[in-house]
Automatic annotation (TrEMBL), chains A, B:
It comes from Rhizobium lusitanum. PANTHER family: N-ACETYL-D-GLUCOSAMINE KINASE (PTHR43190). The keyword Ligase does not apply. Residues 6-254 form the ATPase BadF/BadG/BcrA/BcrD type domain. Keywords: Kinase, Transferase. One of its GO terms (molecular function) is kinase activity. This is Glucosamine kinase. Pfam families: BcrAD_BadFG. CDD domains: ASKHA_NBD_GspK-like.
Length: 294, 294
């Protein structure tokens, strides 16, 4: 095996890369644009490589080394059809291993231990590793999935605001604040909803938690509905000896107080982030050659 | 006032027109393509006029009479911004009155009486008339509204099917049937959801009712959630002396057994359909000149 390897978090907002040496030490990091291999394969490839080159430069190495080093890339969609293999085939690294974003998140949070992770950002998804075997649930997206996502919290909020406007459901300080934001014009709320992407809805998530903390009944109801979805998903994954549950993502802290006591008792801080997970898998690749951790 | 008038139901699937004489008798009817004034004003205008011309021909009258006769057009979006006025200004009739689809639906179902209508098709919307004053709630669309629509029933079903697939919620014959339809591949369900419009989701509504009738627990839960939304909306509109509630739309019959007993007791058959409503308003226009029923 060679001297260096590259670990890459190919994320939907940006790509981050780290160069490591044979002992797993990070020598340099780099960043580039987004990787969305399902929707924009070409730019994803460009950004993955750019992040790696920046990491090499930051480590004081020649960026042309990308052609000589092995790399591990974690990115959403790697398990969809042939996308992962296509990315592996198209990348210029000496050898490439493309795994899902969940695989590097799990490795980052748990290291080599068993456990469960739940990630709550614009979307929501769960993964578990038991006796070294990992699997996941959720993450099916905004329209018919992601029940505990920021996007769902925001969508539920706007729906509740319109029901309150129609006097079908009770108003609250939060529904009043939302309607005021749109000049008390339901048509403008609908216009926003039809023009918006999940991340636009997700911007309302912190407000929902803020108002829930101030005992707003509608906010509490929305958060409790999402927390119930988390409870049901964790219960679907949990086994008696499961050592820990790690919550990841921008809403992880906000959800903590709302979780079921059985799950709270298992909460642990993640050991590291997703890039850390990619780095650890790259170190394994450097150490063992072809890893068996896909 | 003249001898004839035209009533037009400018619907999102097709336009239907009827020519009436001074006594309100329908002399002929005609049909043409869709009117969606918010999304396609130009073709809406073409189709409204085409339906009217066909109605005149069917009545044995000269289609060029469109320039000489008054017309009442009911169409969705007539109350949004200046759309209604723009349509009135652009139509070639001797005089045009553009009202909402709800106005002609209410007139068709209730005639001149007070009461409530609830329309359940791809969307869901409610209107009421009390002491001659009408108002409406709901109808805010697929993303954050239309809780009792066919589209929402279908969306809820696919969401429940994925939760069952993940073993987060119980499976049922219905969730099994849905997953089998997509080759037990959740990615394919997600793909459908992301590529689909409300009417595509709405195609699952009859299946949900069928399975609910066969005691499928998931189907019953989905229908009960929608029926609860109907109950809450009707309660928001209802007043003590309200004489009747009419259910309209493709799902009206299917919802009947699921309604609250208080509302069931008030159910009445609609007197006529939406075109009937447009015809009645056209007759008023012919009789009274400028009507005050907008």
């Amino acid at each position: 095996m060679g001297q260096f390897a590259i670990g890459i978090d190919g994320g939907g907002t940006s790509c981050r890369a780290a160069v490591i040496n044979g002992t797993g030490q990070v020598l340099g990091t780099g960043k580039a644009g987004a990787a969305n291999i399902l929707s924009d394969l070409e730019n994803s490839l460009i950004n993955i490589v750019a992040a790696a080159r920046h990491a090499l430069t930051s480590a004081g190495l020649d960026p042309e080394q990308v052609y000589k080093l092995p790399a591990v890339i974690g990115t959403a969609g790697a398990n969809v059809g042939s996308y992962g293999k296509r990315v592996e085939g198209a990348l210029p690294f000496a050898s490439s291993r493309v795994v899902t974003d969940a695989t590097i998140a799990l490795q980052g949070a748990l290291g080599d231990a068993d456990g469960i992770i739940g990630a709550f950002g614009t979307g929501s998804v769960y993964n578990a590793r038991r006796d070294g075997v990992s699997w996941g649930i959720g993450g099916w997206g905004f329209v018919i999935g992601d029940q505990a996502s920021g996007a769902r919290l925001g969508r539920d909020l706007l729906e509740r605001a319109l029901l309150a406007h129609d006097r079908v459901a009770a108003t609250s300080p939060l529904t009043n604040a939302i309607m005021a934001e749109y000049g008390n014009d339901p048509e403008r709320v609908v216009e926003f909803a039809h023009a918006s992407k999940p991340k636009d809805f997700g911007r309302y998530a912190p407000i929902v938690f803020d108002y829930a903390g101030m005992n707003d009944p509608v906010a509490i109801d929305i958060v409790k509905t999402a927390a119930k979805a988390i409870t049901e998903s964790l219960d679907a994954l949990l086994w008696p000896e499961c050592p820990s549950i790690c919550l990841l993502g921008g809403l992880a802290q906000a959800y903590r107080p709302w979780l079921d006591a059985r799950h709270k008792a298992l909460l642990a801080e993640p050991k590291g982030d997703v890039l850390r997970g990619a780095v650890e898998l790259a170190a394994k690749l450097l150490r063992d050659g072809k890893g068996s951790w896909a």
